Amino acid sequence: MSRRARLCACLAASVLPLAGCGGGGDAPPAPTSLGGTTGGGMPSSSTLSPAPRVFDARALEDGVRQVLTQSYGLADVGEVRCPSGQFVQAGISFDCEVVVGGARKNVTLTVQGLDGTYQVSQPR
Predict the structure, then answer these.
(1) What is the model's pTM?
(2) pLDDT digit string (tens) for 50-99?
(3) b/e per residue, 1-28, with b = 16+ CB within 10 A?
(4) C-alpha closest to that of 121 among 103, 105, 109
(5) What is the pLDDT of residue 50?
(6) What DSSP string describes 41-91?
(7) Residue 32: is it exposed, middle or buried by C-beta count within 10 angstroms (0-12/13-18/19+)?
(8) According to the model, what pLDDT value does residue 51 have?
């Protein structure tokens, strides 16, 4: 079983709503599934659409840290800060600030689907 598959299986087994799995190496990481979203109420009629879902910033930060350490194999990942209020909308991207080895860097999260999957870029 590949490292990515083990990571995904581990996360699925633990029902971890705050983080997901991602790829590593030179290829873009596999989308990460994030259950830590809010919103979505129950529409009372077919004319109402559900409220847009918003990522939980803390869950994103935990997920980014996990992808950086487990999928990219980076040691000494410190603070991770992701902006709050980011909508779960396929195709949007936003940056999170990370500290790796004492240096401030950025990673870009690209939302893959309405289910909250996203990709994390390598720090730059």
Answers:
(1) 0.63
(2) 788 999 999 999 999 999 999 999 999 999 999 999 999 999 999 999 99
(3) eeebeebbeebeeeebbbbbbbbbeeee
(4) 109
(5) 79
(6) ---SSTTPPPPPPEE-HHHHHHHHHHIIIIIS--S-EEEEE--SS-B--TT
(7) buried
(8) 82
| Alpha carbon distance 21, 80 (integer Å) | 17
Measured CA to CA, the distance from residue 19 to residue 56 in angstroms comes to 10
DSSP string, 95-114: EEEEEETTEEEEEEEEE--T
Name the residue with higher pLDDT: 51 or 5: 51
Tell me which residue has tokens 């350490």. Answer: 69
**What gap in Å lies between CA 77 and CA 103, rounded to an integer?**
10
Q: In the predicted model, what is the mean pLDDT of residues 100-106?
A: 97
Residues 6+ apart with CB under 8 A from 20: 8, 11, 31, 32, 33, 34, 63, 66, 67, 117, 118
In contact, 82 and 60? CB cutoff 8 Å: yes
Nearest to 96 by CA among 85, 84, 110, 107: 107
